[in-house]
Amino acid sequence: MGAMARAFKAWTIGGLAVLGWSAAAGAADVGVRRELPPEAVPAPASVGADMLFGVRVQSDYIFRGISQSNGNPSPQSYFELQFLDNLLYAGLAVYRVDLATRPTMEQDWTIGIRPKFGPLQFDFGLIYYNYPSERRLIDPFTNTIWTPANTDMLELAGKVSWTYQDALTLGANAFHAHNWLGTRAPGTYGSLTAKYALPETVLGFSGLAVSGELGHYWLGTTSATLGSIQLPDYTYWNAGLSYTWKMLTFDLRYHDTDLSRRDCFTLTSDPRGIFNGSGRSRWCGSTVVGTISVDLQASTLPGIFAPK
């Protein structure tokens, strides 16, 4: 559900990682190059407020290694308001999900601050995961309670990323929820990420990037109502290739975890594992996910957000 060694834990929480990318492209000048004096170089327009918004479709919605859409396609959308040149932000993302508690959707509300110091970008904020119209899953024959009545949760989020020459971005992420998916168990997730934009001089075109993530989840013990179960910790990783052309991005990515099917069932309460009596789930196994997304930025379009 949505949602390594101890040495990795110490290393990760001390300095976890994120990454993003920017395509590197250049064109040689022909003839004598004329440099404008500093006072003649126009300053870039400053945008006090901006908005990002977009839509995407994924062949499977994977959240930290676990399918949230029962292995089926998931249409998604998001928007984010930014203020003071992206120092402050607030946003909402909506996902189609197919989970044990049968919510109509997933809504992720975010708010935070993004200080920037040269190539270092920080992000400190809150994420509230909301699952409307949930129903607690109870076995009608044994009256066994399999899920919380409400799996909404609030996470504290901290991220840092470092970018080198607009091509390589390395990062670290840490997230903590004191009540993981309504189970009353604490949950802490840390990951390291990297992304590299392949040079245009090598390929003859820009927009292609490779990226990956290595993360680990540390989970606690559930409430007595759910059996006081010690939830299994697990390691998650992904690696993929993306291509961006104007507003479109195509991404093909491999996801996997070290969870057994029995441990996966413990975390997800996959209804198939209940009804067939296996106590197992395939929601945490290896899978390849394709994503098509369209992303827009208000400041690049005519309107009130466009720089004057």
Key terms:
308 residues, mainly beta, Porin, twelve-stranded antiparallel barrel, disordered N terminus
Can you characterise this structure?
The chain is mostly beta strands and about 300 residues long. It has a single domain (about 5-15, about 45-300), classed as Porin (Beta Barrel). The chain has helices at about 5-15, 200-205, 260-270, 270-275; strands at about 50-60, 60-65, 65, 75-85, 90-95, 105-115, 115, 120-130, 155-165, 170-175, 185-195, 210-220, 235-245, 250-255, 285-295. The strands form 2 sheets. It has a 12-stranded antiparallel beta barrel. A hairpin with a 2-residue loop joins strand 7 (about 115) and strand 8. The longest helix is centred in the N-terminal third of the chain and has 9 residues, at about 5-15. The chain is globular, with a radius of gyration of 22 Å. The model is unreliable at about 1-45 (pLDDT under 50).
What is this structure, in a nutshell?
The chain is mainly beta.
Set down the secondary structure blueprint.
Elements: H1 6-14, E1 49-58, E2 62-63, E3 66-67, E4 74-83, E5 88-95, E6 106-113, E7 116-117, E8 120-130, E9 153-164, E10 168-177, E11 187-197, H2 200-203, E12 208-219, E13 234-245, E14 248-257, H3 261-268, H4 271-275, E15 287-297
Antiparallel strand pairs: 1-4, 1-15, 2-3, 4-5, 5-6, 6-8, 7-8, 8-9, 9-10, 10-11, 11-12, 12-13, 13-14, 14-15
Termini distance? Answer: 46 Å
SSE order, one letter for each helix or strand:
HEEEEEEEEEEEHEEEHHE
Major beta sheet, specifics? 12 strands, antiparallel, barrel
Principal-axes geometry comes out as: globular
CATH superfamily descriptor: Inverse autotransporter, beta-domain
Helix content: under 10%
CATH topology: Porin
